[in-house]
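Retro notes
What went well: the complex prediction finally ran end to end.
Inputs used:
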Amino acid sequence: MNEILLDYNLQELQQLMQQLNEPKYRAKQLLDSLLLGQNIDTNTTLPKSLKDKLSTFVWQPIEIYKAFQGKSAIKFLYKLCDNNIIEGIVMFHKYGNTLCVSTQVGCRMGCKFCASTLDGLIRNLTAGEILGQVVAVNKYLQGNIVDRKITNIVLMGSGEPLDNYDNVLKFLNMVTSKDSFNFSRRNISLSTCGIADKTDKLADDFPGIVLTISLHSAHQAKRQEIMPIANKFSLSQLMKSVKNYQVKSGRRVVFEYTLIDGVNDSINDAKSIRDLTKGIMCHINLIPLNYVKERNLKTSKNITNFEMQLKKLGCSVTVRNSMGSEIDGACGQLRRKHLEETE
Ligand code: SF4
């Protein structure tokens, strides 16, 4: 694969200009052009001589291949330079527009209720491919660098962000940079299935974003059954890292809890959540299970009651509105459907 220009931050582009015997200011012109979603043919600020030197690079690593318009969301299938397909969704809220980005093609974490992991990990996305999703959707919504049409980013698409740590960290630095889209850390959420050591690393490298933990069970044995990562990092190790992140970032942590019929939706399950999260500044998001046809799991019939139980136990809890569900099923399903259709 050719080198991707969006993988370069401003300093790296300045070094590239130096190597190409070009003035330093061209780096910022190039970066602005890339963030606007321009490519070599649509750029109007760089001289032809420089564009010739940059013709072997990939300018835009993400192409919107299909868009599915819903009432309050648009789902996208993106095509990558190597023809891999990933998906994303932008959700329109009263307070702004949230883009959910993917960090890997596929995922190797094997969570039992998830469609993204059915083919395993295909490959990591580069920082520029993650940033490219923001660029492509912002352009699709007719935004620019200053007047962005995306206000919030959640790293909750396919892939485990902390399993692609270096590229994700570079993306976070780039997207929050004043040279780039200048997102506030407060408006970014990162969701992990519970890689405790990398959560500690994140607390040192990039605190201040919202840490979201895919919990799905507060019982160690049950969690091991649903989420293989729990075999490597126990709940007690994970909670230590969560507390550490909280202390270093000063932010409330969010726990995501997918309710699966007969698996994790009893009163005892609710009590275990309360016990596990006691003393932690946190919020619990209950998520109705998205149907994955390859798995034999159903969404809980007990969602409202489970929410009420948690409230009674003193937890801060809401049921997540699954926006965009009318467009298609679970995260990962859209990509699989596309692959099946093209086979
Ligand atoms: S829930 Fe997240 S970490 Fe688990 S398999 Fe799916 S994409 Fe991977």
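What we learned: The longest strand covers residues 62-69.
What to try next: split runs per interface for comparison.
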